[in-house]
UniProtKB/TrEMBL annotation:
InterPro entries: Glyco_trans_31. It comes from Falco tinnunculus. This is Hexosyltransferase. Pfam families: Galactosyl_T (PF01762). Its EC number is 2.4.1.-. The keyword Lipid biosynthesis does not apply.
Length: 306
């Protein structure tokens, strides 16, 4: 018996079978039974919205969420169109008790926070998006569209809805489309993806993660196919991988309508844009009263196409 305790343990599994490779630290664990810490399961029970806004934010960014609620994230932003706004959060270990209390108070006031128990890090943004897709699939499958956005954008929802989303479509996704791009292999890059995580040289076409819009039916299909694919740490590229697995292509938007770079505010120009990236919440609060003023010009750009 003593001799048996000193013998080394043999690897588990059948003889001749190579153990599964160890998951790379940059590869988010998925599928995984993440638990909703904050949830809004009843939001769509009475009526399915036309558009669900899924906004990725950090748990501590209370001021940023407040600014978005007052500007483009206002659920009354498009008269006559039902919009539902939800913020996507992970968890943070720093000041967890105090932060938890603040988030519960914020959620009590606004009922618009979704949070699961994965770490809120840049490389887990894929998990945030999949959390949003899971929520739509389980609790709001009748939504016509889903828009995923980052917190540092300007969005013009009236222009988006009336110019690009009517009449409602199926198997549809559009935004700033990237084609023939590949993973960055140098560790110094923020967007570093090792071959162990994604071995191919190029990504399938995908929409830049700052903001993209997809039909509600496609949200459920992306969530379901994601359960069968190796997840990567680049959220927007992973959505493109899901689209390829589904046999669904991306729809190009007119050049410049989704801007992945910062543009100085000018009302007439912004009235013809859907998204401007690198637009901070404090900038939104500054320009929004002018952009939405009743006497604003360029309103003809909001009329639907014939």
């Amino acid at each position: 018996r003593a001799l048996r305790r000193r013998l080394p343990r043999r690897p588990s599994g059948p003889p001749g079978v190579t153990p599964a490779p160890t998951r790379h630290p940059l590869q988010p664990p998925y599928p995984h039974p993440y638990r909703f810490v904050l949830n809004q399961p009843h939001k769509c029970r009475e009526r399915a919205p036309f558009l669900v806004l899924l906004v990725a934010t950090e748990p501590t960014d209370i001021a940023g969420r407040h600014a978005i609620r007052q500007t483009w994230g206002n659920e009354s932003a498009v008269p006559g169109v039902s919009i539902l706004r939800l913020f996507l959060l992970g968890t943070q270990p720093v000041f967890s008790a105090a932060l938890r209390a603040a988030l519960e108070e914020e959620n009590h006031l606004h009922r618009d926070l979704l949070q699961q128990d994965f770490w809120d890090t840049y490389h887990n943004l894929t998990l945030k998006t999949l959390m949003g897709m899971e929520w739509v699939t389980r609790h709001c499958p009748g939504a016509a569209y889903v828009l995923k956005a980052d917190r540092d954008v300007f969005l013009n929802l009236p222009y988006l809805v009336r110019r690009f989303l009517l009449p409602p479509k199926k198997n549809f996704i559009t935004g700033y489309v990237y084609r023939n791009t590949g993973p960055l292999r140098r560790k110094a890059y923020k967007w570093y993806v090792p071959r162990q995580v994604y071995p191919a040289a190029t990504y399938p076409p995908y929409c830049g993660g700052a903001a993209y819009v997809l039909s509600g039916d496609l949200a459920g299909k992306i969530y379901r196919v994601a359960q069968t694919l190796p997840v990567i740490n680049m959220e927007d590229a992973f959505v493109g991988i899901c689209l390829r697995a589904l046999g669904v292509g991306v729809t190009d938007s007119p050049w410049g309508v989704f801007n992945m770079y910062h543009v100085e505010y000018e009302r007439c120009r912004f009235s013809r844009l859907v998204m401007v990236h690198h637009f901070q919440p404090h900038e939104l609060l500054r320009i929004w009263p002018h952009f939405t003023a009743p006497n604003a010009t360029c309103q003809d750009e909001l009329r639907p196409r014939r």
